[in-house]
Amino acid sequence: MADPRGFLKVRERQTQPRRPVPVRIMDWKEVYEAQEKGVLKEQAGRCMDCGIPFCHQGCPLGNLIPEWNDLMYRHKGREAIERLHATNNFPEFTGRLCPAPCEASCVLGINQPAVTIKQVEVSIIDQAFDENWVTPHAPERLTDKTIAVVGSGPAGLAVAQQLTRAGHTVAVYERDDKIGGLLRYGIPDFKMEKLQVDRRLDQMRAEGTRFRTGVEVGRDISWEQLRRRYDAVVVATGSTVPRDLPIPGRELDGVHFAMEYLVQANRVVAGEQVKRQINAEGKHVIILGGGDTGADCLGTAHRQQAASVTTLAIGKQPPAERAAHQPWPMYPTLFETASAHEEGGERTYLASTVEFVGENGKLTGVKIAETEFVDGRRVPKAGTERVLPADLVFLALGFTGPEPAGLAEQVQAEFDERTNVVRDGYYMTKTPGVFAAGDAGRGQSLIVWAIAEGRACAAAVDQWLMGSTRLPAPVAPSDRAITPL
């Protein structure tokens, strides 16, 4: 335990400082600054001897949170990163991008602000990289087994690293020109600079993982060819089919999916040339959807110097505090202010989008109405329609599942009612030797779940190939109990 009386002596929750808004919207660097060591020690010391650390239950990875809080309190950073890496392959990703369900489960959070778990986590890994404590862990001996991992997001990378360390030969296939999936091209640099991805990939290459970019499986190479070439195949393509909004005016020039916009912006920030880039400079922007993707569009539009940005959400504004039906230690739905929301723009709730308005094929506005609830359905309220001026609209309404890309025909994969790949309790699809991990099988979810599923899927693959495994398996793909192989 860090400090037996720490949570009594330091009652204030102090998170990482953010750079001033007028400064940070002029560049694409990360919003957060490093926490001062004295403050970090105090915050880690607030972790209490709660007996049963519910933060373990709240974290899909089962992170050993009290242990590394104690180690950081005692300035033992090297031991802390060892405990953190024991359950999490990529804390530099989760420490920046995860919404921290562990903090919602913190016992201290019952009657005080929760421990700043996410802040301590990212401080541990940043120090580890600065001190060169993150080194390759190459396997002691190699097996004769080969595995293809399709998709290089957090789930695919976690699968690949775990199986490489188990001694298998692993090749990661990525259709883009660089490895990282949405970590590379979907997450803006102001949330996570791509240095974080690149230096982890350097470690993985040194360990023996092989990467194949610019290869779209199902088109450039068939799934059947992969099955013949490798002993096992892991589908980790993510949930990338965006949810559309088929209302009048959808075809107008100026209405785009959010990810189309974000990918282009990230490529430009990386120094690439993008033809006919969607640019918000000087334009009135409306974002449909109030989640993380919408916030990423908001921050990007600010940095492109949009004339105005409005975020519309069809539902009610979430409460500022826990609702009665979401008691501790459940993860509550709360009204949150992301860094992008601090930078400007309007947020409107109970706004139903009725029509996209335009002239000569170009978007000029969005007709909205107040949302009312009829028989449990959210519908536009008659007589409340109005038109908001808009030059650009970004649809940030979530994703509906993975792209089939030959899975159904070449692998005979089945899809459930949510269009996710069906797999059994060991992450295997209907086809023996073909597994699915992360959002491709789970549906759109958190980065921490993607890594957890990647680690568990790797253990299942290793078990299937070798008859036993020493790899940890933190989660099953469903809530039902499973019997070990």
TrEMBL record:
Keywords: Amino-acid biosynthesis, Glutamate biosynthesis, Iron, Iron-sulfur, Metal-binding, Oxidoreductase. Signal peptide: none annotated. Residues 146-454 form the FAD/NAD(P)-binding domain. The keyword Iron applies. This is Glutamate synthase subunit beta. InterPro entries: DPD_II, FAD/NAD-bd_sf, FAD/NAD-binding_dom, Glut_synth_ssu1, Glutamate_Synthase, Helical_ferredxn. PANTHER family: GLUTAMATE SYNTHASE [NADPH] SMALL CHAIN (PTHR43100:SF1). GO terms for biological process: glutamate biosynthetic process. GO terms for molecular function: iron-sulfur cluster binding; metal ion binding; oxidoreductase activity, acting on the CH-NH2 group of donors, NAD or NADP as acceptor. Pathway: Amino-acid biosynthesis. It comes from Arthrobacter jiangjiafuii. Residues 25-132 form the Dihydroprymidine dehydrogenase domain. It holds the Pfam family Fer4_20.
